[in-house]
Write a structure and sequence with these properties.
single chain; 270 residues; alpha/beta; Rossmann fold; two-stranded parallel sheet; 14% strand; globular; binds NADP nicotinamide-adenine-dinucleotide phosphate; SDR_fam; oxidoreductase; SDR family oxidoreductase; NAD(P)-bd_dom_sf
Length: 270
């Protein structure tokens, strides 16, 4: 039986990964788990009580072992605790999902610098340190997988959030290239809008986001794991967003900034 560690497991996309990986199905890490077997899980988030409830539910439903690791990934202590778990060679982690993240409401200079720095800690420093702890051990074993949850915001010039997700994509592609042939797969997952707690937590209004732009977290995760199994290093697991990002790639950078901020004002979170 293999083990998956998911950060931000208690809500939204992370919770969908936890459900999917606890049940049967492929994880794309290259590990042989036996037919129909789910993963043991290590669940990471800040809310201890919610983690405990989630662990009990997944254990009771799927019969897998579920460890909880309460940690705040905006702190050195929290990142260090998860790094230590990933470095534990006696209980190896086969699949790491770096998913924890959040948005800050407002444009540049409206958002307090401390909140932007906190975002960089969770979206960049934590992802770098946890990916490094996990892949060092995976490379020794010759197998394993890492999914770093980025966003389609990585491809458009939209503030600190988009910039942090652009880092996630570039970093993941570079690391995947350097570890090619080692048996360790890395993939950046780039969702569009997903119905989760994300916008509500950031107190962003979503009324003007058209219905067709919303993705379902469970379908997103199923498609993402299929892409990991195929060996993709970047996954945009939806035809609508694939088409949109194709257009973005063809648009000159200078035009893109104005276009995305006009479109964002009209159809984006408020
Ligand atoms: N929803 C979207 O439209 C969308 C689109 C593209 C990309 N994404 C990305 O997808 C990822 C997941 O977002 P989501 O939409 O599923 O959000 P969500 O529903 O708000 O869930 C966020 C999860 O992250 C945890 N978390 C937040 N801050 C944390 C911290 N400092 N330390 C540890 N855990 C923390 C939360 O639990 P606790 O509060 O208990 O810590 C929760 O489990 C994020 O990286 C986000 O940027 C989301």
């Amino acid at each position: 039986m293999t083990t998956a560690l998911i950060t931000g497991s208690t809500a939204g996309i992370g919770a969908a990964f936890a459900r999917r990986l606890a049940a049967s199905g492929t994880d794309g890490s290259g590990a042989d788990r036996g037919h129909g077997a789910g993963h043991h899980l290590v669940l990471v988030a800040r809310d201890r009580e919610r983690l405990r409830r989630q662990a009990t539910e997944l254990h009771d439903r799927h019969g897998v072992e579920v460890e909880v690791l309460p940690a705040d990934l905006s702190t050195d202590e929290g990142i260090g605790a998860v790094e230590a778990r990933l470095a534990d060679r006696t209980h190896p982690v086969d699949l790491l999902v770096n998913n924890a993240g959040f948005g800050n409401k407002g444009e540049y200079l409206d958002v307090p610098l401390a909140d932007e720095l906190k975002m960089l800690k969770v979206h960049i420093e934590a992802v770098l340190r946890l990916t490094s702890a996990a892949t060092a051990s995976m490379r020794e074993r010759g197998r394993g997988g890492v999914v770093n949850v980025a966003s389609v915001a990585a491809f458009v010039p939209r503030g600190t959030y988009g910039a942090s997700k652009a880092w996630v994509v570039q970093f993941t592609q570079g690391a995947a290239h350097d570890l090619a042939g080692s048996g360790v797969r890395l993939m950046a997952l780039c969702p569009g809008f997903v119905r989760t707690e994300f916008h509500q937590r950031a107190e962003m209004g979503t009324d003007n986001i058209p219905g067709w732009m919303w993705l379902d977290a469970d379908k997103l995760v199923a498609a993402a794991l299929a892409d990991l199994a195929r060996g993709r290093t970047v996954s945009i697991p939806d035809p609508r967003y694939k088409a949109l990002m194709g257009l973005v790639k063809l648009t000159p950078r200078a035009l893109l900034t104005g276009m995305t901020s006009r479109t964002g004002r009209k159809y984006g979170p408020q």
